Amino acid sequence: xxxxxxxxxxxxxxxxxxxxxxxxxxxxxxxxxxxxxxxxxxxxxxxxxxxxxxxxxxxxxxxxxxxxxxxxxxxxxxxxxxxxxxxxxxxxxxxxxxxxxxxxxxxxxxxxxxxxxxxxxxxxxxxxxxxxxxxxxxxxxxxxxxxxxxxxxxxxxxxxxxxxxxxxxxxxxxxxxxxxxxxxxxxxxxxxxxxxxxxxxxxxxxxxxxxxxxxxxxxxxxxxxxxx
Length: 228
Ligand SMILES: Nc1ncnc2c1ncn2[C@@H]1O[C@H](COP(=O)(O)OP(=O)(O)OP(=O)(O)O)[C@@H](O)[C@H]1O
Ligand SMILES: [Mg+2]
Fold this sequence. Notes:
Blueprint: E1 6-17, E2 20-31, E3 35-39, H1 46-53, E4 61-66, E5 69-70, H2 74-83, E6 84-87, H3 100-106, H4 121-133, H5 149-161, E7 167-171, H6 179-196, E8 199-203, H7 207-210, E9 216-221, E10 224-227
Parallel strand pairs: 3-8, 3-9, 6-7, 7-8
Antiparallel strand pairs: 1-2, 1-4, 4-5, 9-10
Helix pairs in contact: 3-4, 3-5, 5-6
């Protein structure tokens, strides 16, 4: 090795659904600790790109490497999934009739506890630390259904971070958020970068608001990725 490790490395990726090609011959690399915004119109393929990175959609052509490991076996794709914290575009957390602290703790499911095993002291401690980091401490006992859009987003990010991922993928639903919640995201991201030093890919419809916290941005259009 010896060179700086790439957290994500896509080479010649083409991918899509049935006969519709969405991504066409894409090359992309994210280095350790980097934060990159992904821009593009609705339907451009941003979420599809995330699915490829997470090993949920197998590309037609090209190779995906996460932290230097190729995702060409089922085992490696499961492994990759564990390195990645994913904040999905569609929020369902808000409908859960459970407390914020339990919603965050559930993010650890499938890491050290699963099935009938109960959360450990470490799981609980990580949940508390994550709640504090995202300023959710005061809301820990609130019912998730009573949160605002911005607060729900914080819970969704907390659920991803509590798994201690090496890479954070944020599929930003700016459209569902009010202006105040949108304004919070840059601040939230800079806290995450400062405190956790995570590598981050953030899909955004509002490049400008994220300019200060991202290192660079790429634009997805007509299946290709452009540096901007
Ligand atoms: N599961 C699927 N099956 C078939 N086609 C799909 C599927 N998911 C997405 N597509 C199609 O792939 C294209 C890219 O979709 P994708 O969700 O990646 O776009 P996006 O950039 O995330 O859009 P948005 O900004 O609206 O979230 C669209 O034409 C979409 O209709
Ligand atoms: Mg999308």
